[in-house]
Each structure stands twice: as structure tokens, then as C-alpha cells.
Fold these 4 entries.
Entry 1:
Amino acid sequence: MSGGIDGLVETVLDTLRTPLGLLGVTLVGYQLGRWLQRRSGEHPLVQPVLVAVVVAGMAITLLDVAYDDYRSSTELVAFWLGPATVALAIPLHRQADRLRGFVVPLVVAVVLGAATSIVSAVYLARWLGAGEVLQETLSTKAATTPVAIALTDSLGGIPPLAAVFAIVIGIFGAMFGPATLWLLRVRDRRARGLALGAVSHGVGASRMLLENETEGAFAGLSMGLTALAISLLLPVLALWVF
């Protein structure tokens, strides 16, 4: 009897180690996060992405699966991130009339925000004693993950670590950003979306879509513009800060 149970457990574990099994674990983790978020009344601190990361991390650790194997098994999720990002243009199209009289402040805010993000990250890391490689890696934190990886690689930083910084900052920005903006008395829906999208990328944009469609639309716009601004500013600022 014991041998039969052990065999069944081993069969289940082997199934979970397959590409389909690892993909299923990731999706189950995210759905668990969504369920918890709904149960909490859509509370910002309950982030489905964070729950999915914890579940996936625990799973590959317990199953003794290498990260490279996990990443290759879940490429389907990474593939759909592209179309999901493009789909953020739909709410922006619906809110196009809200751009009137806001284009110039929007562009100025994005450019200044991107420059501030780069310079503050580098000098804060330097003040804390971080080496130049880590400073270069942190400088791209406000860009979306693919852009952060590419820029960090061109600077000579650590691309995988840049991806970790971008994802972690995105999650924590989505968790604490809405409350912070409320405490700072930022009430304009466009400004709120612009601020969180610039910091928290896709995670922040999805969070703001739950708050308000206008906020979500401007968060999606800010995410793309911030990545573009950092890509253009970083090569110039790198000559000064490094």
C-alpha cells in the first residue's frame, strides 16, 4: 500500500516537472492571487503577480527544477505579455479626449521622471557603497523588463538582476503606489495613472485599470513613454553619472 502511494506521489511530481506541469503551476499561482485579491475587495496589497512568483518559486525549489528549465517551459506566458501590453492601447483610445491640454505636461513629466529615476538610483546606490556594475544595473529599474535587460547589457551591468529589480519595483509600486498618491493628495486621474505607470510598468497599469479606466489608460501610456525616455536618456546621462 505504501509503495503504491509512493509511486503515485512520484508520478505526480514527475508530471509537475514537465513543461505543461510547470506552466500549470504558474497559472494556478496567478489564479490563486486573483482569488485572494477578489476576497480582499481588490486591495492593492494583494497582488496576483506576487502570489504567482511565490508559488512558482516554492514549486521549482521543492521540485528541484532549474530556473532555465522553468523559464523555457513557461515561454508561452512570456509570449502573451507582448499582446497584453499592446492591448493597453484600447483603454487609452477610449480616453483620447482626456489628452487635450495634457500632452506637454505629460511629455515634460515623463522626461524629468525618467532622468530623476536614473540619477537617483545611481547616486543612492553609490552612497550605499555599491560598485559601478550594480549602479549600472539599478539605473534601468524604471524601464519595462525587456528594455531594462537590453539597456543593462549594453552598459555592462547584470541583465538578470536588472529584470529582478524591474519586476520587484513594479510589484511594490502597484502595492503601495495608489495609497501614496492618495496621501500626497494627487487626485487627477491622469496624473495618478502617469505616475504609477512610470514606476510600476505593466503591473502598475493593470492595478490602475482596477481603480479607474482613465488611470489605467494613462498608466499604460506612461509605461511605454518612460521606457522610450530611459532608452534615449541613459546613454547621455551615463557619460555623466558613471
Entry 2:
Amino acid sequence: MARKLEPPPPGFDDNPEWTEENFARAKPFSEVFPEQYASWKKNKGGRPPVEQPKVHIGFRLAADVVKGVRATGPGYNARVEKVLREALAKGRF
């Protein structure tokens, strides 16, 4: 069973207006918590960098070709890349 919370005392403000004295005492997060700041700066998230990132190119194809490739289902980009690699290896370009 959930416990009922007590109401705050009269005059309580959990977000008071800052005074000039508060601003004068304030320190940057990096000074107050240097280890945590360093770990946050080091870990930027996202995917790790790759040795040879893929390159975006744009070219036009016939609508029926695009429709046929997309009809093969999810992952068609990888399949098209595989076909192109095989054609390059066989010297068909």
C-alpha cells in the first residue's frame, strides 16, 4: 500500500529565487564533480567511429528497378551493396 506524503510546511519553497550571494557562491559542475564530468565528456554516446564509414551518394534509377529492389523486403540496401561488390570483383563495370 502506498504511503501518503505529508504536505510541506507553510512557507516552504522547493525552488526559491536565487540571490546575488547564491550566484557568487556557485561553482561549475566540472569543479564540484570532476570525475563525473570527465566521464560524461569522454562518453558522447552514439555509435562508435568506424575505420571506413559508408558514403552517401545520390543517383537516379528507373522506377521499376527501385520498386523491384524494395519489394525484396527489409535489408535491400545491404543486398544491393553485395551485388555491386560482386560485379566489381568480376570486372563487370
Entry 3:
Amino acid sequence: MNSLFSLIRRLAPLLPLLTLLVGTPRDARGEAPSESQVKGAYLYNFTKFVTWPDSAFAHERDPFQLCLLGQDPFGAAITALTQKTVGSHPIAIRHLTDPRESGGCHLLFVAGSEEEKIPRILEAIRGKPVLTVGDTPEFASRGGMIHFTRVNDTVRFAIHQETALNAGLRIHATLLQVGHVLK
């Protein structure tokens, strides 16, 4: 019995992510969430398993800047995050058209529409404590930190931990266990 409780305690932090991986609940109409809703939920859950340096926030209650660069694939799914917080920081959503606008971003989602600009985008924020998440194949291998992928009609993600560490971000082991870690 003690081993069962021990297992439950170890898995508890994984539950938000495991729910997304194993299967997501259906809504009141019996419909599964859309891919954009799942990715939006991942973005929020990533914030629970990444530690930003204290210098990333000037004040304890400064907003957590979740920035979207390129065509917004989320719509209302991302707007709902403004009702949530990251620690003591309320989430603010910013839509960017140029990577030079990324000052103050804590998480930068790079839409697939920006694939050709990825090297320039990542260069603009290199060394800053910004979690970069992309929607293009191999985004993390190209210098980003996390990219979404599809496996058997399920949204998954890959992580490049070294890139995150170089930017001063710490990705918790819990997230690394659930994602595919790139070398």
C-alpha cells in the first residue's frame, strides 16, 4: 500500500501533462478538444514546469508575457489563459509581428507561418530568459527550446534542454520525462 501512495505522490506533478498525452476529456457535446486547444493547454502547462530567473521579472506581480509571433493558430483557446497565472504573475497575451518586439516576453510561441524566419527570430532573443516554443518540425533542433509534433493523431513535444539552460531557464525533470529530449 505504501508503494502505491509513493507512486501517486511521484506522478501527481505529471497529471496535467499526462491528461493531454493519454487522452483529453470531451466537452459537454462529446467532442474532443481541437489541436489548437491542446497546444494552448500545453503552453500553459509548460509554464508550470519551467523556472525563470528572478531577473526575468522586475516585480513580484509583473505580468507573465506570453507572446505569439506570426499567425495565431489558437484564437479563443489562448485568450482563456488571461484568466490564469504563472505563480504570482497574471498572464498577458501579446501578438507580435516582428521578433524585435519580443522584449519582455517570457514565453515566445513561433507560429508555423514564420518558418523561414526562425534563424533571425532565435538570434533576436539569444541569451534572454525566453522559453521558445515552435509549431514547425525540428524547431527545437534548429535552436528553439520546444516544438510540437504529432504522433498517431496525438500532439506531443520535443525539448532541447541545453538551449533552455543557456538562456537561464530550468526545465523541471517532470517535463523532461513527458517530452522527447533532444541531444
Entry 4:
Amino acid sequence: MSITTDRLASLIQRELAPIVNTEVKDKSFGYINLTEVKVTKDLSFANIYYTILSDDPKVLERAKNAIEDAKVSIRMELAKKIKNTRKIPDLIFKYDEALAYGNKIDRLLKTIK
């Protein structure tokens, strides 16, 4: 990534974290943690990776649907916060499976001991 995309990704992550947790109406799955933001070179898309504290597939699906339902309002709030860019990239939310994978490995290691 270039300096511009790195800076924009960092800015989006910093500004987006509180916005996501206030705009998502369903609070049954708890806090949404943004782990990484990757912006494409043409600045048209931003892949936002998130985690929640549950590994239950039903809870993950409910969180995904809640985020997708709030995506338009999240993007509008982000546009209000970031004023030094010409356009706000389209937001693509993806569940970050690294934390769940790490927890699975940790559980396996504990059973071995």
C-alpha cells in the first residue's frame, strides 16, 4: 500500500470504530472490534475486518446482518467525520477469523497439556 492508502485506512479505522458501535442497533452480540482496514489503490473500496466475542455461527450471522443493515448510515457518519478526502470508499465488512482460529489453537494446546 502507498502512503495515501495507509493513511486513509488508519483514519477510517480510527473514526469508524465508535461509529459502528453506535449505528448498529442490535446490541445482543456485544461490542464490535475493528481489527484492520485495507483500502484499494484507487480508494474506491475499503475492506473492514471485524471481530466479536462469540464464536457461535448464529450470533456471527446476526452480527453480519446488523452491520449490513446499518452500512449506509455508517458510511454517511464516516463522511461527516472525514472531510479531507474527495470521496468516501464503499465499505465492505468482513469477519476476521484470525481471533477465532487463535482461540481454537489455544483450546487444542490446553487439551494436550
